[in-house]
Amino acid sequence: MKLERYDTENPELGKLRNFRFGIELARYRIPLHYFSRAVINAEIWNPQDAVSAGFYDRTAPAEQLAAAAAMAAEMFGNLNMTAFNGTKNKSRKDLLELLDRCIEMDLVVTQAPLFPSQHLLAEPTSLEALGQVLLLIDLLL
User: What is the CATH number of the domain that holds 124?
Assistant: First the structure.
């Protein structure tokens, strides 16, 4: 049986590929006029256009990456981290609660067998990797 990206004859297989977490994160991060192009059409952008689309706040050429990172670190170092974290958490409270619910729903869906003897999250290392991705996303949000 050949699996397509979305299997219209088997909705359960289609669900496995529609992770709510990624969709909701994109809805929060990407301006509406780019959302459909990114999420539904899977459009890919070059770095400059990806900034306009909301995927990145800024980019830097490879030769300027160290200086740009140092500048960003200095900026964050000058912030009152208690105020920064409080404001960030309060302003994103609803989103973070939604993402938590999406992760729970996505884990239930991904633990369903793709084929009778196969599970997508059968190994604990997959959950560890998910935790690392979520930590990175928290830093980016």
Answer: 3.90.226.10
